[in-house]
Amino acid sequence: MHQTFDAAIEMNLLHANQRGADHNRAHFDQWGITCINLMSSPGAGKTQLLEATLKSLENLQVAVIEGDMTTELDAERLRQHGVPVVAINTGRSCHLDSKMVAGGIQQLQQHDPQSLDLVVVENVGNLVCPAEFEVGEHAKVALLSVTEGEDKPLKYPVMFREADCLLITKTDLVPHLDVDLAQIEANVRQINPTVAIFHVSAKTGEGLDAWCNWLQQAVTVQSNRLQLTV
Q1: Mean pLDDT of the chain
Q2: Residue 155: CATH number of its domain
Q3: First and final CA of the chain: distance in angstroms?
Q4: Out of the domains of life, which is the source (predicted)?
Q5: What total of structural domains would you count in the chain?
Q6: Are 137 and 58 in contact, with CB atoms under 8 Å apart?
Q7: Angle ∠(136,142,146) on CA atoms, nearest 5
Q8: pLDDT score of 3
Q9: What is the 3-state secondary structure (H, E, C) of 44-97?
Q10: Which of 30, 46, 74, 197 has its CB surrounded by the most CB atoms within 10 Å?
Q11: Which pTM does this prediction carry?
Q12: Domain of residue 45, residue span
C-alpha cells in the first residue's frame, strides 16, 4: 500500500529530525554530558519541579535548555538558581526539535560544557508532539499532574509509552481532588509496564529525593557507558 503524500512528508521530517538528534547526542557524549528531555502538558509543573531539583542536586553541574513558544519567563526563573540557561523560543511550533536544540548546544559552548554533568531540556508544554521529536536526549521524562485526571495516559499514549521515567506531580493537591493515584499508575502501566514512576510535590518536597536519585543514577550509567566506549 502506498503512503499518502502527507504521511511521506511526515516520515521525511521525522527522519531528518532523527539525524539531527543523533548529531546532538554525539556532542553531549563528546562532552561527557547526560541529556534529559522533560515533557508534559502546559501547567503540569515542569519549571517548578526543575527549581526544586536544582536546589537538591548539589553534586551535579547542571545546565538547562528552556523551550517556550514566546517568552523567557521560565528561563528567567531558572537563572535565579545560578545555572546556565539557554532559552529557545519556538514561535508557533508546539515542541522543540533537534535543529532548535542544536542552536541551544552552540550557546552552551559559552559555558564550558565539559564541566557539565547534566543538561535538562525543558520542552514546550504539549502532550503529543514532544514525544515524537527526539532532540538528542539519553532519556525522556514525562510529567503528569494529579489535576489532569486518570485518563491522560490512555488518551495520549505516545508520551507515556516513550517515557523512561514518569513523575506524577502536585501530589500535595490529592486531598482536595477526586483523583485515584493507583488508577493513574495502572493506566500508565497499561501503556508502559517498565517505566519508573515517582509521586512528587515540588511544594512539599515529597518524592524529590527519589527523583534526584534517579537522575544521579542516569548520569552514572551514561558516564560508565562512555568510559566503556573509549
Answers
A1: 93
A2: 3.40.50.300
A3: 45
A4: Bacteria
A5: 1
A6: no
A7: 165
A8: 53
A9: CCHHHHHHHHHHHCCCCCEEEEEEECCCCHHHHHHHCCCCCEEEEECCCCCCCC
A10: 46
A11: 0.93
A12: 5-229
